[in-house]
Amino acid sequence: MSVFHLKYRPQRVCELDLPDVSEKLKKLLEAKEIPQTWLFAGPKGCGKTSAARIVARAINCLKPQGVEPCNECLNCKEILKGNSLDILEIDAASNRGIDDVRSLKEGAYLSPSRLKKKVMIIDEVHMLTREAFNALLKLLEEPPKDLFLILCTTDEEKIPDTVLSRLSRVNFTRGKEADLMSSLKKIIDGEKIKIEPAAIKLLISRSDGSFRNIQRSFNEVFLEVGKNISVKDMSEFLEKSGEYQGEEIEKDLMKNSGKEILNKLQKLAIMGANFGTLREKWVDYFQKKLLSFYGVGEKSTEGLNMVEVIRWLSLLIEAGKKEKLTELSQLPLQLAVVEFLGEKKVIVIEPKVADVEPKREEPKITKRSNDKVSLEEVEKKWSQVLAAVKPYNHSVEAFLRAARPEKIKDGVLVLGVFYKFHKERLEENKNRKIVNAGLAEVLGDEIEFECLLTENKKVITRESTAAGVTTGKTDEGEINEIAERIFS
Q1: Residue 34's pLDDT is what?
Q2: Cβ partners under 8 Å of residue 140, min gap 6
Q3: Which part of the chain has CATH 3.30.300.180?
Q4: Which of 106, 125, 241, 424 has the fewest Cβ atoms surrounding its Cβ within 10 A?
Q5: Other CB atoms closer than 10 Å to residue 371's CB: what's the count?
Q6: d(Cα 80, Cα 53) in Å, to the nearest integer?
Q7: Which regions in the chain score pLDDT beneath 70?
Q8: Which residue pairs, CB below 8 angstroms and at least 24 apart, start in 464-471?
Q9: Which pLDDT score is estimated for 243?
């Protein structure tokens, strides 16, 4: 049984799924001098690698049909089979260092072994290190006359401007509904599949605009259901495949259903879900919701408020940066969920909470009439204050462990804080409220506090900070840097 996204991979420029890309490539290939260095930039699954291979055949074809490769000559067949020594495909995510680029450059200056032109396709080029980009720059400035370089990326913003300025750029985008429909029609006609139009629209509506992903999903439906596919079949398949839509995650976040969300993400991981694609879908959903607050698009009256949407989008963007740093593909999204719901618990100190979540009672404060809280009492109950703060935010509790009650001046508790980073964090409004609540809960009295840097500066380690223990001495700049890494 053929795999759809491989069997129906475009083989000519005119067959590319994105019309704008097809037109751009035609113009570049028709030019009197075809560019030797190219950049194909766009999201995953939009046809960048397919286009690069078509270009490789077009410039090596022995019997070209205009700008199109014939796909029948010896050169075309050799490239199609993946047997050509002159067509090199390199994954920069795995070969990203300066030594890898030096090795690539050595091969670049060798003449083609059999084809007319040597073509190097570097995928995920944005993953190269700065030193590797610098090493590549000379090759891009003056490539050998028989060499073509095609750089592919999903994140062109990470590519240095000095590199970008030397490339002929082709922009790839997510497929529009008509483009995705056309791509699926090739498979439907080729496999003689009978499918209800509404079922196609349902599949497209759940797509992220990726041709590869939608073809893979369609392949799975076909293998499970057969050649006759109804809307019901498609709906049941999508439900079983573990689709986690923007509306659903929003409802779960509103309910503070951390355990449920994490369980769903774990199940998706077991099923082999693409979490990069899932994150992009969520970003798209919440970006539209953000715009709706300003009257752009359909107005949103339910769900997360604007501040929460902004924070959640920021966490999703951060999760995207972490995707290539871990082998557990679900982990960046799980961390985003934990951090978001952790912040919502901080907000619980104030009256606004989700209806379904039991509300933490406000600290009972009994005003004292004649006496005041003494430093001795604060010191005696300091461990209780830490315990009271921890349920609200464990990081704030860790900051307090690296501080000590120094004195009480004019009814204000002065905390000696060893490090500037801790002082700045404790003075943030949201964290100040947490500390005030902990003090009030334990001491039974409202008491303000202020932070004062002390001279007793000691080393923070991940273990000692969590335990509230500090030892030794170090430079303040080093301390702040370590603390930033631990708590940021």
Answers
A1: 93
A2: 37, 149, 163, 166, 167
A3: 375-487
A4: 106
A5: 7
A6: 8
A7: 1-2, 239-243, 271-272, 298-301, 343-372, 455-488
A8: 465/398, 465/401, 465/402, 466/398, 467/401, 468/386, 468/398, 468/401, 468/402, 469/401, 470/402, 470/418
A9: 67
Determine the Cα–Cα distance for residues 168 and 160; give it in Å rounded to an integer.
15
Q: How large is the angle between the packed helices 197-205 and 211-225, nearest 10 degrees?
A: 130
Place of tokens 């404790």: 426
Q: What is the pLDDT of residue 122?
A: 93
Residues of the chain with CATH 3.40.50.300: 4-171
Domain 4-171 has CATH 3.40.50.300: yes
| pLDDT attached to residue 61 | 95
% of the chain residues with pLDDT over 90: 32
Q: Which residues contact 353 (CB under 8 A, 6 or more apart)?
A: 347, 359
The pLDDT score that the predictor gives to residue 401 is: 83
Instruction: Tell me what pLDDT residue 47 has.
Output: 92
pLDDT of residue 241: 63
What pLDDT score does 78 carry? Answer: 93
Written out in words, the top-level CATH class of the domain with range 177-240 is mainly alpha
Its pTM stands at 0.56
